[in-house]
Design goal:
single chain, 5 strands, globular, 17 helices, five-stranded antiparallel β-sheet, mainly alpha
């Protein structure tokens, strides 16, 4: 690891709290949120901001609804601002609103500040610890964001480094399907240069591990696994995991065909396995979730779960709302009627506030890109805009735009440290809007 990069990163972080918070935009909003407002928001089943927009949400209006989030920056805002201004993207960032453009630039500028040279870091503070370095969502978000804006050489370098250093010899890691899809996405956007020759072997090992899991599955065909890092001990047959295995295997076969590659298992066999797993997963979902439109709760797994009273009614429900459902949507395996049912469950049972994701008594948006991509695929443009606008308005801090993993309801404060996947939500998804 390059020591100059390490020193630079430490310097940026050390300078952060000593720099003015108004580097980019003006003074804090004059609006105030009363304690009674917060209690009403916590009890609301429907998003009170969504109810104000009968058509296309307006970012300028959303920016003025509440006091903006305020907390210290993760890195020196002047340095981030300078980096953001010098970025040369392809295409040019032009989403139709300068604040969204700025959020994209600031997000991209955070990548090199967060990484330790080519070595990934999830964030700062507790998230700077080595045990978080290999967390796959960091590299998944990074490669998506960089390649979306034509910063392809950096994307290739970082992806190659990650594959060579974090995929174990037996192919194990986590977020397998998303990693395989990331490889296909990078090749489609940037080509194979700088990563494919070295990355093929670890990706092939990863694929073989997934195929072995499917071969060992029970009679229902679903793969059992951990749903996410915090709940890794809760091994079960989760729908979002299986959905992403399907999409990952499909992406791998398409990528191998494009590159005329020879993986250990031929693409035709892998395609059939993916299609069969998709059918098994959808069969299990329909058996778990009755067709009754009043039954809003889709359990995240085959095994029986406690039905909550709302989307944040239990800790398991909060995890379902903030990550399991969004990743099931973004896996693209759900037919449109089922996908819209999932969205409606979030919208009508306390799953969001100003488009942001609710988790118990606070907001947690780091997986929001998955939900946004699901909304975009469904053609739900207004819901997409509300969630994206709410995120950049209130999950990012005023002035320096640092995106924390978790924030409180307005007037917002940092509840958990800065993390890169949350910072990259705008960079990953605003590409849909670029002119």
């Amino acid at each position: 690891m390059n020591s100059s990069h390490s020193s630079r990163r430490r310097f940026l972080h050390k300078c952060a709290t000593a720099t003015a918070l108004s580097t980019f935009i003006g003074s804090p909003s004059a609006h105030a949120a009363e304690p009674t407002d917060q209690q009403a928001w916590l009890e609301a089943l429907e998003d009170p901001v969504r109810e104000q927009f009968y058509g296309k949400p307006d970012l300028d209006i959303i920016l003025g609804l509440f006091p903006r989030t305020t907390s210290e920056p993760a890195f020196d805002p002047d340095e981030i601002a300078a980096k953001a201004k010098t970025l040369r993207t392809s295409p040019k960032i032009d989403t139709g609103h300068p604040f969204l453009d700025l959020s994209v630039r600031v997000g991209l500028a955070h990548i090199d500040a967060t990484f330790d040279g080519d070595h990934p870091k999830y964030g700062v503070g507790v998230y700077e610890r080595p045990e978080h370095d290999g967390f796959p969502p960091t590299i998944i978000a990074t490669i998506d964001a960089l390649s979306a804006w034509g910063l392809n050489q950096r994307a290739a370098t970082l992806f190659r480094y990650w594959l060579e250093n974090f995929v174990r010899d037996d192919g194990t890691i986590s977020e397998y399907g998303q990693l395989l899809h990331t490889a296909r996405l990078l090749e489609e956007r940037a080509g194979p240069d700088g990563w494919w020759n070295d990355g093929f072997a670890p990706l092939d090992r990863l694929t073989e591990y997934l195929l072995a899991l499917r071969a060992d599955a029970d009679d229902d065909g679903l793969i059992a696994g951990s749903p996410e890092a915090d709940t890794r001990k809760h091994v079960s047959k989760y729908f979002h995991n299986n959905g992403w295995v399907v999409k990952g295997l499909q992406s791998w076969t398409e990528l191998c065909k494009r590159r005329n590659a020879s993986p250990t298992t031929n693409p035709e066999t892998t395609t059939k396995i993916a299609n069969d797993l998709k059918a098994d997963t959808l069969r299990a979902i329909r058996a778990t979730w009755p067709a009754d439109p009043n039954d809003w709760w889709l359990s995240p797994r085959v095994e029986a779960t406690e039905k909550p009273t709302r989307a944040t009614g239990t800790r398991d429900a909060s995890y379902t709302n903030y990550r399991y459902w969004p990743e099931l949507l973004s896996s693209s395996i759900l037919p449109e009627p089922l996908a819209n049912r999932v969205v409606q469950s979030r919208l009508t049972h306390g799953g969001q506030f100003c488009g942001m994701t609710r988790f118990q008594g606070h907001l947690d948006d780091w997986p929001l890109a998955e939900y946004l991509n699901g909304l975009w695929a469904l053609g739900r443009t207004n819901d997409f805009l509300l969630s994206l606008y709410g995120h950049i308005a209130y999950h990012q801090a005023e002035g320096h735009l640092t995106a924390y993993e978790q924030v409180t309801f307005p007037p917002g404060k940092k509840k958990a440290d800065y993390c890169l996947p949350c910072q990259l939500v705008a960079a990953r998804t605003a590409r849909h809007l670029n002119k």
